[in-house]
Amino acid sequence: MNYSRQREIILEALRNNVVHPTAEYIHSVLEKQYGSVSIATLYRNLNQLVDNGLIKRIDGLEVPSHFDHNTHEHFHFMCEKCKKIFDVSSDVAPDIVEKAQQELGAKINGYDIVFRGICNDCK
Amino acid sequence: MNYSRQREIILEALRNNVVHPTAEYIHSVLEKQYGSVSIATLYRNLNQLVDNGLIKRIDGLEVPSHFDHNTHEHFHFMCEKCKKIFDVSSDVAPDIVEKAQQELGAKINGYDIVFRGICNDCK
DNA sequence: TCATAATTGATAACAATTATCATTTTATAG
DNA sequence: CTATAAAATGATAATTGTTATCAATTATGA
Questions:
Q1: Any alpha helices (H) in A17-78, and if so which ranges?
Q2: A93 lies in the same domain as A58
Q3: What is the residue range of A92's domain?
C-alpha cells in the first residue's frame, strides 16, 4: 500500500468524526472538512483499509455498509427506530469463538454479532 | 396474507431443498422442480414470509441475502473458501441477549451471529 | 355472485458498489 | 537527481441485487 493523501484523510475523517458512518456519510464529511475525494477512490480505499485491518466493515446491519475505526473486539446494536448504532462489549459472549470452533471443527477468522431493538432513549 | 400458489411453492422449495439459498438459487429450483415464478413475486414473497416469521433472512453474510426455513434460534458460519454455510448451535452464546440488554438498557428484538473462516473440509 | 382486497408478471427504476481506463503520483534503483 | 515501474486517482460506465409501478388476475367473504 503506497501512501496517498486521499487515504490519509479518509482514515483521519473516520477517526476524528462519527463512529459508524456509511461510505456516503464519509464522503460528505470529507467534502466539508477535508478535501473532496472521488466516490470511486473512497470505496477503493475503504476496502483496502478493511483488508489491511485498519478499519472494520460492520456486517449484518442495514445496507449500505457501515464502517468502524475501532478495531478492538466489540459488537453492535442498532436501534430500529432512530437507526443509531451503539457498541456492545465483547463480554456478552465469552469463549464464543472457541466454542464455535469446537462445534464446527473449523478455523474461525472473524465474526460479527449484531443486535436489533429499541434503544434506551427511544423506549 | 391471502393464499397464493406461488407463495406455497416458494415455501415448499425452501423446506424441501437446500438450506441457506439465495433468492436467485430459489428461483432456479422453482424453475426446475415446481412452476416458474417471476422474480418480482419471489422477492415479494420472501419478504412477506420473513415479515410473518415463516422464514428468516440471514444477515451479515455476503450479498446477495440468504434465507433459512429454520426459524429456531441458531447461528451461522460461512466458509471463506467453499462459501458453504453451516449452522452453529445457540449454545455458543448463552444469556447473550440478557447481558446485552442490561449493558445497553435497550429492548432487544433480535440479533444475528455470523462466523467466517475455513471449514473442516477445506482445511 | 358481486365487490374488495391481495397477488401476479413484466419491466422500469433504484441504490450501492465495482470495473474500466487514461492520467497522475509515489517509491526506488541506478 | 533521474528513469522506471507500480500504485493510486478521478470520471464515469457498468453491474448487481432488489424494489416500485401498474394493469390484469385471483382469492375472500358478505
A1: 23-33, 39-51
A2: no
A3: 74-117
